[in-house]
Amino acid sequence: MTYSNLFEKVDKWLGDKTARSHHVAVINAFCAAMAIKDAKLKRIYTEADLIGPDGRPFVYWLRLFLKRPCDQFDASSIIIELARESKEKLYSFYLFGGAPDVVIKMKKKLEQLYPHIRIVGYHSPPFRELTLEEDQAICDEINRLEPDIVCVGLGTPKQDYWIYEHKEKIRGTVFIPCGAIFDFFGGRVKRAPRVVTKSGFEWLYRLCGRDFKRLWHRYTVMNVIFLWNFILQLARVKNFDKPNR
């Protein structure tokens, strides 16, 4: 997938604001490793309306070995590209996730970088399961504001579950799982320099940062699980097209 493909799809989806919402999934090694054991998460990714490679190694694999045109669909790049495109297309945005101070800082940062951007609302949910009344209030607000793009920053896989459960409740928008982008644009975490991101070692940069305790398992154990299963797939020992049991 390329960003040109993404814009074409988004424009088509937004042509009917009464239809169900659409899910753009972004997949990296961590997502794939979790989906191996989590049947529901595998179904969520499989049924997404569009799937983009988050990790840089995925991009290299698709380009070099599968000969497919491909851009990197990490959350930061997606939001940046959509924000740039919105100057012409007039996309509107809603920010859902992050701590209260972080989501406000993210909103201000995006408006500073892209003065044309239209952020019609934002919400920082509590770090607990929402009541039915709270959830309905959020759905009602987003439906009332009718944003084109909803940036969901609840962390993986929580944000993926949330999007899957709200595709029918919220109408006519495009859900983008944003993960750490709230922390990047909100100023809580410094993003890796562009040269590090391009090299495919942004994971190592983040691992050595302030979130080491949270990320070490993700970037060590989960990466090993992914690589082992990837080798099994290449050797045709394991077929991941079969449903989880």
Describe it for me?
The protein is of the alpha/beta class. The chain has one domain. 53% of the residues lie in helices and 13% in strands. The chain is globular and about 50 Å long. The two termini are 30 Å apart. The mean pLDDT is 87.
Layout: helices, strands, pairs:
Elements: H1 3-13, E1 22-27, H2 29-37, H3 39-46, E2 50-53, H4 56-64, H5 75-89, E3 92-97, H6 100-113, E4 118-123, H7 132-145, E5 149-153, H8 158-166, E6 174-177, H9 181-186, H10 194-199, H11 202-207, H12 212-219, H13 221-234
Parallel strand pairs: 1-2, 1-6, 3-4, 3-5, 5-6
Helix pairs in contact: 2-3, 2-13, 12-13
The best one-word shape is globular
Helix content: 40-55%
Question: Strand portion, in percent?
Answer: 5-15%
Rounded radius of gyration (Å): 18 Å
| Spatial strand arrangement across the major sheet | 2-1-6-5-3-4
Largest sheet: 6 strands, parallel
Order of helices and strands: HEHHEHHEHEHEHEHHHHH
For the record, the count of structural domains works out to 1
The stretches of 5 or more residues where confidence is low (pLDDT under 50) are none
**Helix/strand structural class:** alpha/beta
* Chain-averaged pLDDT: 87
Ends: how far apart? 30 Å
Key phrases:
245 residues; alpha/beta; six-stranded parallel β-sheet; 6 strands; 53% helix; globular
Quick structural gist:
The chain is α/β, with parallel strands linked by helices.
